[in-house]
Design brief:
single chain, alpha/beta, Rossmann fold, six-stranded parallel sheet, 33% helix, binds 3-phosphoglyceric acid
């Protein structure tokens, strides 16, 4: 049993599902190129314990996921087929890909499905009823199994038919990944050991403002980088050049206390005339950015300062890289701090697509105690918002 926001959450271990047909909702929204090449499988691997356990208990699995945002239309580039192929390689067993789950042929096939078999349905967002949380659609989906397991933490902030609607129609519970996510994030929200530091950065500022506001009160320090740092510097009256920031909200002061003593913005920054590999860069003080500059990373003094601050931390929550890490030249600040965290004894949690990609590329996933598969979902959960996919399991 996992506990989320003070609520007990039943998992597959509690429900003891055996020799049954089980619908498993996962979030295999992985990056795929137009040619069907899968460049990451972090989320697929993260769901493996649930799938393996259900298979070991003699169940048949009907796996459902979304991929991208096809807006209710069938798009070849967003097919689940490459994902089914990768899943098959990881499970070391055949995964039958079901292109049209609602055809008579597919329904007949699923009715004769045997123990230990696995199938994966086509991208569930190809049907517009999914995002509308249409009840009839949820009912149609529920006929594919006797039980429903939600292991899609990354999509549980969406009130969609295969996430929220369906779990009201079948005996339902959480998968092991979902349970692990809520355990780790709950520790950040309710059981932090101090000193507790939060790092908020990345290319988008909007979702992080609420978290900055919250953690200024709960943490011992909130360290900022990326778009949110630029936005705070801008609202304090400093030039940020052409850097990414939350421009819609010029007056951030109205949203939260940007002068809080617990809020740490970069002391120095790396600037570049272009966001491109080989564009060249310079170190500048936060107050010395020119109108034509892009802030692309934190500077060396900031790195040293942040590393020193985090040295004695007992809990660290990190969301979003400190620089434009897609470009290797601008990832030095983020990497220097992650490498310094290798020696830290703090309980460390991170997440978000860009951070996960960077950690994987540099084989640094193991530095953290938990790497969340959620992007937006992680931010919403930490902000204390109710998640429809989790709420639906609280029956
Ligand atoms: C994600 O990648 O954050 C999840 O899969 C949710 O995707 P969405 O933002 O398109 O709902």
């Amino acid at each position: 049993m996992a506990t989320t926001q003070g609520i007990k959450l039943m998992t597959i271990r509690d429900l003891r599902i055996r020799r049954a047909r089980v619908i498993v909702r996962v979030d295999f929204n992985e990056p795929i190129s137009g040619r069907g090449h899968l460049s990451d499988d972090f989320r697929i691997r993260a769901a493996m314990p649930t799938l393996m356990k259900l298979l070991a208990d003699g169940n048949q699995l009907v796996i459902i996921s979304h991929l991208g945002r096809p807006n209710g239309k069938k798009r070849r580039t967003m097919s689940m087929k490459p994902i089914a192929r990768r899943l098959s390689a990881l499970l070391k067993r055949r995964v039958v890909f079901i292109r049209d789950p609602f055809s008579v042929r597919s329904r007949r096939f699923l009715a004769t499905f045997e123990e230990g078999r696995v199938c994966m349905l086509e991208n569930i967002r190809f049907w517009q009823e999914e995002e509308k949380n249409n009840l009839q659609f949820a009912e149609k989906l529920s006929r594919f199994g006797k039980y429903y397991v939600n292991d899609a933490f990354g999509a549980s902030h969406r009130a969609h038919a295969s996430i929220a609607g369906i779990s009201r129609l079948l005996p339902s519970c959480a998968g092991l990944l979902l349970a692990r996510e809520v355990r780790a994030l709950d520790r950040m929200c309710h059981h932090q050991r101090h000193p507790f530091f939060v790092i908020l950065a990345g290319g988008k500022a909007s979702g992080k403002i609420e978290l900055a506001k919250k953690f200024i009160h709960e943490a011992d320090g909130v360290l900022l980088g990326g778009a949110i740092a630029n936005s705070v510097l801008m609202s304090r009256g400093f030039e940020i050049g052409r850097s990414v920031a939350y421009h819609e909200m010029k007056n951030m002061k109205k949203m939260f206390n940007v002068s809080s003593q617990k809020l740490y913005t970069p002391l120095d920054v790396i600037v570049s005339p272009r966001i491109a590999q080989g564009a060249g860069s310079a170190i500048k003080l936060y107050s010395g950015v020119a109108a034509h500059d892009y802030i692309v990373d934190v500077g060396p003094a900031t790195r040293r300062f942040f590393i020193k601050m985090l040295k004695n931390a007992r809990t660290i929550l990190w969301n979003g890289p400190l620089g434009v890490v897609e470009i290797p030249e601008f990832s030095a600040g983020t990497l220097a701090i992650i490498n310094a965290l290798k020696r830290s004894k703090a309980y460390k949690v991170t997440g978000g697509g860009d951070t996960v990609a960077l950690l994987q590329k540099h084989r640094l996933v193991g530095v953290f105690d938990h790497v969340s598969t959620g992007g937006g979902a992680m931010l919403e959960y930490l902000a204390g918002k109710k998640m429809p996919g989790i709420e639906a399991l609280r029956k």
